[in-house]
Design brief:
The complex is a heterodimer of chains A (about 240) and B (about 190). The relative contact order of chain A is 0.12. The longest helix of chain A has about 30 residues. Chain A is globular. By secondary structure, chain A is an all-alpha fold. Helix content of chain B is about 75%, strand content about 0%. In chain B, helix 4 runs antiparallel to helix 5 and helix 5 runs antiparallel to helix 6. In chain B, strand 1 and strand 2 form a beta hairpin. A two-stranded antiparallel ribbon of chain B has the order 1-2. Classes of the chains: A mainly alpha (about 240), B mainly alpha (about 190). At the A-B interface, helix 5, helix 6, helix 7 and helix 9 of A face helix 1, helix 4 and helix 5 of B.
């Protein structure tokens, strides 16, 4: 039964092979780095699972790296989805706003952290993880909101990455919030909720990356949102600001 | 307290987004081709829309009708315009879906035509959604008022009538490019 905890590792290994076969490192270097690291981290945890002290360090170091990679992947998704950011000032703010909102929510909820944590670094890693979960949900939900509003094309890799992270993070936040209320009694359900939701996220990535993304046409060099569309939103934002 | 509410709001948004995507994946139209457009479009009487937005007609009504009748007529006009704008939003959505599918499959001239179609459809979609929102809020907040439709011609700097005409032109060009008869498109659009 213990081995079922390593189902995500098996799925991630398959995903890694699919990403290599699709040569996704060029288009999504950070996501590729994330998946590669996830395979290595899970393997390392598996190898040292019986040595408590080593496992402790491996676990928390890898969690810290996951936090950093999670933010990098979200920025990659954001840049890919919102296109050429260099020409306009305001789209850059969307990501910054999401980061700020996530940070504020994390700090606001930070009071709920167990006070008996032995190490301040671990507390910071946990806060960082919660912040990244917020960021991932915000990114995913924002992109989904654009689907019915402007008919955003969702069958694309960037959307798939955001969706995988979004679904996992939603369930992770939900179960973590419940865990913080119910305490140790909920620990087992919390653990399984995370394993199942992360497996679902990897399955979503496999589903998206399983199909070849259509090659870019000359007309769609700026992805998803065209310059003209961005102009419309820029004017809209200006009107709102007035 | 406020952090708990904010956290649950983010979680709820995530859950709704997940459920919506499940619905889209299971129920959405599978790949809208050029042959799956005409049957799904809803007729929009642009002449009627122009008349509803005409300041002259609005002024005439104010001159001829008493306050009570004017309020009733204006509210009816708002509902008619809401229906027209809803159809515009629907048609724009259908054409955006068609554009999304074809944009990644076409190259050269066809890709250019599709890009124009997408641009026009997004403009109409944006205008119509904002107008629907504004009218709905207005009807809900001030149910006893007699809202004039004149100021609803432009939303987010998009002229509703002109942009819809632009969308018609773009879709006609796209249909011609894809060698499909445009007469049925014009009739149902």
């Amino acid at each position: 039964l213990k081995l079922t905890e390593y189902i995500p590792l098996a799925l991630l290994s398959v995903l890694f092979c699919v990403l290599v076969a699709r040569r996704s490192a060029r288009a999504f270097p950070w996501f590729m780095a994330y998946v590669s690291f996830a395979v290595c981290a899970d393997l390392a945890r598996f190898v040292v699972r019986d040595r408590y002290e080593v496992y402790f360090f491996v676990y928390w170091i890898t969690e810290g790296v996951y936090t950093f990679l999670g933010i990098a992947v979200m920025y990659e998704v954001f840049r890919r989805t919102f296109g050429n950011l260099g020409r306009f000032g305001w789209p850059r703010w969307i990501f910054l706003v999401m980061i700020v909102v996530s940070a504020v929510l994390t700090v606001g909820r930070g009071e709920g952290l167990p006070s008996g944590l032995p190490d301040r670094t671990i507390a910071l890693i946990i806060l960082g993880e919660i912040g990244v979960r917020f960021l991932q949900v915000l990114m995913f939900a924002s992109l989904v909101t654009l689907v019915p509003l402007i008919g955003l094309q969702w069958k694309q890799y960037a959307f798939g990455i955001a969706m995988g992270f979004g679904v996992y993070s939603t369930i992770a936040l939900l179960s973590t919030t419940r865990f913080s209320v119910l305490g140790e009694d909920y620990h087992l359900s919390w653990k399984w909720a995370l394993i199942i939701s992360y497996s679902c996220a990897v399955l979503i990535w496999l589903w998206f990356f399983g199909a070849a993304e259509k090659p870019d046409t000359p007309g769609s060099a700026t992805p998803v949102l065209s310059l003209a569309e961005l102009n419309i939103y820029r004017r809209l934002m200006r009107r709102i600001n007035r | 307290m406020i952090w708990t509410i904010a956290t649950w709001a983010v979680i709820a948004w995530g859950v709704l987004a997940t459920l919506y995507m499940v619905g889209v994946a299971l129920l959405s139209f599978p790949g809208r081709t050029v042959d799956d457009v005409v049957d799904f479009l809803r007729p929009v009487d642009l002449a009627q829309a122009e008349l509803l937005l005409d300041p002259g007609a609005d002024y005439e009504l104010k001159l001829k009708l008493d306050a009570e009748t004017l309020r009733e007529v204006q509210r009816k006009r708002v509902h008619v315009y809401l229906e027209l704008v809803r159809r515009m939003a629907h048609n724009a959505r259908v054409l955006v879906e068609f554009g999304n599918r074809e944009a990644v499959r076409r190259t050269g001239r066809e890709a250019g035509v599709i890009a124009v179609l997408q641009r026009e459809a997004v403009k109409v979609r944006l205008y119509s959604l904002l107008t629907i929102l504004k009218l709905r809020v207005l009807l809900a907040v001030r149910p006893r008022q007699t809202p004039s439709l004149v100021k609803f011609r432009i939303a987010a700097e998009v002229d509703g009538i002109s942009s819809y005409k632009g969308l018609r032109e773009a879709s006609t060009t796209a249909f011609a490019e894809f060698k499909r008869p445009v007469d049925k498109l014009i009739l149902s659009f």
